[in-house]
Amino acid sequence: MITSRWTQSLLFVLLAILVALLFTSAVLLMAGASPVAAYWYILKGAFGSWTKIADVAVAWVPLLLATSGLLMTFAAGLWNIGIEGQIVLGAIFTTWVLRVLQHSTLSPAVILFLAIAAGAIGGALWATLAGVLKVYGGVNEIFGGLGLDFVAVALILWLIFGPWKRPGIGSMSGTEPFPQQLWLPTLGQSRLSLWALLLGLVSIGMVYFLLSGTYFGLKLKAVGKNPRAAYLLGIPTTRYLMSAFLLSGLFAGLAGAVQVTAVYHRLIPAISSGYGWLGLMVSMLINFQPAWAAPVTLFFAALNIGSIQLPIVLKLDSSLSGVLQGALVLSFLLMSGVRQRWAHRHPQEAEHE
Amino acid sequence: MEIQLRHIHKTFGPVHANDDITLTIPSGAIQGLLGENGAGKSTLMKVLSGYFHPDAGEILLDGQPVTIHSPADALRLGIGMLHQDPLDFPPMKVLDNFMVGYPKGLGLPRAEARQALLDLAAQFGFSLDPDAYVGSLTVGERQQLEIVRLLWLGAKALIFDEPTTGISAQQKEKLFAALRRLAAEGKTVIFVTHKLEEVEMLCDRVAVLRAGRLVGEAFPPYDLDQLVRMMFGKAVSKGERVNTALGKPVLEIKNLAVEDVRVRIQGVDLTVREGEVIGLAGMEGSGQRHLLRACAGLVRPVDGEIWIDGHNLTGKSYHEFMRRGVAYVPAARLEEGLVPTLTLLEHMILAGEQKGLIIDRQAALQRTHERIQTFSIRGRPHSPIESLSGGNQQRALLALLRPGLRLLLMEHPTRGLDMESAIWVWDTLKRRCREERTAIFFMSSDLEEILHYSDRILVFFSGQVSEPIPAQETDVEHLGQLIGGRGFQPVQEATP
Where are the beta strands (DSSP E) in B133-248? Predict the structure, then answer.
């Protein structure tokens, strides 16, 4: 008999993982590949060497930043679909400042700081735009955000193939790389920047603290759950909704800034790498609880990096990681539904807290 | 259909909501089910209608033991329930809502259903427009819709859970007539209430619940004192009328006009003084709520001015009014007053004093425990607010009010509360008037309440407002007539 809530939770988590693995295995079998081999290569591809572990951390940072931002908007009951565009705008603002200052006499550290700050501002501005559309224009943030995503993509393509194109001809490989002194310093031979990693960890820590320990976070949640009651309780709802958008965009913009300064060292069309969408999946998977954001984003980053090798070794597409991630989110949502039904049938155990 | 409940048990966590209840309900009569808030009436009826599963016990219909898995199951067996808050579909049209739950086949017999709806409605003297939207109906009309819907689906037993809350006096008369007719047709009618006068007026027999147990049954002519003792374990009375000495003006309304889609009221002039209680009487939807909301800055007046403590706040936001010591308590608790999923503790933190950035949980917990004690809230600091019973949610709402308020605006301060809780609520409100000099401006559909606790009364009738009437100079009959428009003298005749 299951007595404690904790063991019960653990059981359902394990069950959810099992369901996701079974589903993915079925997909693999249909593709004619051995699931065991695929999982093994993913594991090896993610943790097989120090370089690979560093690569996982490189992918972890933007995902962590995007998730941090999304947790703020979700707390306020908002679906910030515009997160992808906010990452892109962050990258564009960062690139812009780097382009303007790269030949100046300022020290590289100052230029990098200004560039990253500009990225945060760029993301925040783009998110504020979605917020203004929502709060003052009555445009649902999902529609507004989606529209602004497309505008952001158009903007970045125009910049890369237009005003910021490489000498000669613009190409999908992006703008001219910045001189090496304007790269965020990395650890040894790896691509991992400790500064970026620190930024990601501090961000999620801040979000956790804001949402669980401060009046601001509690009020944000109240606005998210019932704006009318929140207003009658004296909370300026409009200001709080706008703050959620602003903070979310800030973190997303930082993700874009990190992609430019620490990973690609230039602006490329796919600069956001879909981390915004992945962050949405993570947020749903962790049921919007900041405490789980760090481990789960790390796991998702590992899946992304681990599956890069699959096309070479198993002739499988690397999008398999996406299948597994999607299956995980769905099976978690499914299991939480199953669990609620189960708790309904066994009320004593469930309400024993 | 005769219904037998045998040894029904139902617990929610530590609360034993139904404790070994055995009751036989005959057909062809109106069975009352009486008890205070949280006595377990609704739970018992939800068990009978398949909404909850009992932990133990059995249900027999005409002597046959049955297991009811869901409300649809219950309806198949002939049991239908009208819930306290209408469980219908506001965005649907009346006819579509009527056909919801129609069990057979894919194709919907719209024409047939329309005829059935009109016939059934006509039988009971209800006027229901099949093409109106449910959301545009009054609570009373939504009930009528639910009654004819359940009957069409073949209900032989109908459960009414507190059906008279929130409906007008006329609708109540129609409802009672409908109930009597149903009983006369041999249907089983169960009437859940906490109002003694309704039991006396309507019920052929009554069972009394207290704290989850069946205390006893009674038959007419009822001994009301005995019923009260059964309900509460002791006799209660509203206590003496208390008049508070009045101070300087708090709220001044000057030639005010407010309007919404249905009514426009205009030319309201009123001064409310410290410690004064003003009651607003009238049919639901006659503009009382609008006037209250205007005085809190929640609705912008079309004309005129609102002054609080000598400051002109016309057109200012609710938060501006709050800063001047105004508070608004809505009737829709879970929609407007409280934040579902947040706990009692979190509500106390939100409504309490906030110093710095970081929440002082220890102090807040302490304060919450104190308030739970003072306001006798049945719940714990970490209970999600929606898990409390309606009465306890109302207590929580009152516990959230800051001390030292200047003006308290309330919609239905005791709606859905039993008599004892209602008396308690008004004790605390009156204490605010006496000790903190707070003025109270409230609306209610309970005339007794308005008469007993107000100093002056405003009567609303079809877009017109009466002069303030001193409560001592009137009585229920007089007020009732005014609300119905007889002998009504408005402040200002509507000019053509």
Answer: 157-161, 188-193, 205-210, 213-218
